[in-house]
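Researcher: We're reviewing a set of sequences before deciding which ones to prioritize for further study. For each one, I'd like a predicted 3D structure that I can look through quickly. This is Crotonobetainyl-CoA:carnitine CoA-transferase CaiB-like acyl-CoA transferase. If possible, include the structure in token form so it fits the rest of the review sheet.
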Amino acid sequence: MSSLAGVKVLDLSRVFSGPWAAQMLADFGADVIKVERPGRGDDVRHQGLRARGEDGGEVGETSSFMSMNRGKRSVAIDLSRPAGQALVRELAMRSDILIENFKAGDLARYGLDHASLAALNPRLVYCSISGFGQTGPYSHLPGYDPLFQSMSGLMSITGHADGEPGGGPLRVGYSVGDITAGFYAVSAILAALRHRDVVSGTGQHIDLALLDAQVASISHVAMMYLVSGRQPARLGNASPITCPWQSFDCADGQIVVAVGNDTQFAAMCEVLELPGLPDDPRYATNPMRARHRLELVPLLEQAIVRHPVARLRAAFDAAGVPCGPINDFAQVFDDPQIRHREMLRRMPTAAGRDIPQVANPVRFSETPVQYRRAPPGLGQHTDEVLREVLGLETAELEALRRDRIIQAAP
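Model: Here's the predicted structure for Crotonobetainyl-CoA:carnitine CoA-transferase CaiB-like acyl-CoA transferase, in token form for your review sheet.
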């Protein structure tokens, strides 16, 4: 039995944030029905890379789609048509959770907004994920991850300092705003589901903005500004509050060191044969090391650069000094810890191919994550879902197909 067995999720979302949240719920055992546009489907079916077949041609779904949509059933329904809206309304009446990330107000045109559906299904937990939220001066605007990274202040603290080579604000290397909002959405949905089932008996509307989520997730760095009034420095791979906490050049590559306390610093100095540093008042405590970072770091650099990465990592590991290499993805998925934790999995598709998947990191003791379905083809489950959930007969499905209200997998 899985954690969310028996829970039905209607996923009207596209691209990253909503699909990421819905995939997490599917991993936990919910039955997730993904509603897509006939003919085109989710936009991310057309973004990212595809695998190469034996003839060298592209096959299967894109990397972006595959990363966000395992465990779901795809139903292709035209929401712009009244008959399509009626089908989705019927599915919502039989669902526990609905996730959507349309622009604020868009679904009201179709009678699929929270107020309309709550009147039909008061137990529905309805999660709206949007760029700027359902209210406010920006609520009508579209938005994508780079905007939330820039507007939230994240880019102002990411990258090298002005004046240094390559200095200036930088975007984080993945869609961190979307993924962060997806995590917040899962937490909020599960909290609302418990409130419904234990306290109120009714669902509620969740209004989640990507900009809000990104501002909140900056957490302790934003708090540094709030308590001091000073903009946190942009320090590349270094930390403004902990030292040493950064990357260092070695003889044959780079290593990252993250010293979290004074004992670890003393152990690091012992490995590097710098016995006087832990007793120096400038470096004896973390606040002092952070304050005197510009004097301390060059001393450490001179000692570290003489060692190969592997040898220094082994010595630091033995001494209890937190450190690690800067891995590329080939090294990530070949790492013995990652392999032991089975973070790379393979799933069979309906077409008979095996596809790679980055595993869910949660390890339940009693209700393990289930990898039941590969990311679906567009409309792969249209007939199956409409028969099973709505009880439609073959003639009704054929009529809907003739009118181009639905699309089934070829």
